[in-house]
Write a structure and sequence with these properties.
The protein contains no helices and ten strands. By secondary structure, the protein is an all-beta fold. The strands form two sheets. The chain has a five-stranded antiparallel β-sheet, with no helix packed on it. Strands 3-2-6-7-8 form a five-stranded antiparallel β-sheet, with no helix packed on it. It comes from Pararge aegeria aegeria.
């Protein structure tokens, strides 16, 4: 069984919470109802909006660029590599990303958490 990938997108210091946050994988919008299953998103809106993308039982095809695109801010991406073998795991490139909002300084970060099975 593969690990669970938890990608977390945080939007702070925005004049208002984003009305929606869209997630993509390799520039394709993620389908949470796909036959693959095990892919879900949880978004908490407020002064600091947080969106968690969960990919359970990660495998090689889940590797690639994941993008968090808040409706009222520029998107940010992170590159994830799923490694297989005796100890499957995922690696990510990227981390906290800064974004300049026209009205104020906004902070958008993408954080990757791996949960082993």
């Amino acid at each position: 069984m593969g690990s669970t990938i938890n990608l977390t997108c945080v939007v702070q210091h925005s004049p208002e919470p984003p009305p929606a946050i869209r997630w993509t994988h390799n520039d394709e919008e993620i389908n949470y109802d796909s036959p693959r299953g095990g892919v879900s998103v949880i978004t908490e809106k407020g002064e600091m909006t947080t969106s968690h993308l969960l990919v359970q039982k990660a495998r090689a095809p889940d590797s690639g660029r994941y993008t968090c695109a808040p409706a009222n801010a520029n998107p940010r991406s992170v590159l994830v590599h799923v490694l297989s073998g005796e100890h499957p795991a995922a690696m990510q490139h990227g981390g906290q990303l800064r974004l300049q909002y026209p009205l104020s300084a906004a902070l958008l970060s993408v954080i990757v958490t791996l949960m082993g099975c």
